[in-house]
Amino acid sequence: MAFESLTDKLQNVFKNLRSKGRLTEADVKEAMKEVKRALLEADVNFRVVKSFVKTVTDRAIGQDVLTGLNPGQMVIKIVKEEMESLMGSEMTELVIKQGNEITVFLMAGLQGAGKTTTCAKIAGQLKKKGKKPLLVACDVYRPAAIKQLEVNGAKQGVPVFTMGDKQNPVDIAKASIEHAKENDNNIVILDTAGRLHVDESMMEELQNIKANVDVTQTVLVVDAMTGQDAVNVAKTFEEKVGIDGVILTKLDGDTRGGAALSIRAVTGKPILYVGMGEKLEDLQQFYPDRMTSRILG
Ligand code: GDP
User: Fold this and answer.
1) How many angstroms from the chain centroid is the CA of residue 153?
2) What's the EC number here (predicted)?
3) In the structure, how many helices (H) and strands (E) does the chain have?
4) Which of 11, 125, 140, 290 keeps 20 to 30 A from 31, CA to CA?
5) pTM, 2 dp
6) What does the alpha-carbon distance between residue 21 and residue 190 come to, in Å, rounded to a whole number?
């Protein structure tokens, strides 16, 4: 990730705030106008920007900030706190069942978002933690997807369950749970089919899997580089299928940051991980505080 433009602009605003010994309400409002512009240019959701700026302004003007020591510094602190809160404040982990119970992750997302790669990345991380994951090829529409999962699974040393491309995804998912029980796998990762755009049949398929399999968490994979499109996709999936969290891929190539800053606020669901490259180890847990520090520079 390189949100240079956003970071530069916010740092400029902060420099101005710090340079003033005393701040008036007008100074704060002027600074917030610039923050607003910077966030909009970074492709942050319009409503999110509006509410963020309002909260920061109210806090900065309402409390004893302006009459206290270092008002500039205090305003900057408020921006930082509100930005962390926008992204969820705390790091959120995938929920994993204890003991011998099988945890099932339903992985969803549009074609090309990085779903198959991310499934393998997660499987590798869970394996390192001592879990026994099983990757499952439920994308029966793209034969290449099955092969891709097999190749990536092999690289991670994680078994891949497939039934070819002639079965329906619900049957594959059900059979994979039985397979996991028989083979001592305690985590099942279902790699489902994506489409180029959100469509009804994709949503129905996910709903069917959820209705027939005891899914522990539904995780949506979206491409950070698509900005507000990623946010809209997440909103639709949340409404139609219900999701527990989001993985934001290709953050390494994202120069703006709009998706990272909007998704939590728009969908109410946390970012669980971020993809930082094509390699299978390039998956990082998402910490709102660290992300805020990187954005604010
Ligand atoms: P799917 O169609 O959603 O299953 O997407 P794939 O897993 O096939 O990924 C599509 C492309 O995105 C591949 O070329 C991946 O290597 C690439 N990709 C996935 N995640 C990341 C990431 O975090 N960063 C970068 N730079 N590329 C990624």
Assistant:
1) 22
2) 3.6.5.4
3) 11, 8
4) 290
5) 0.96
6) 57
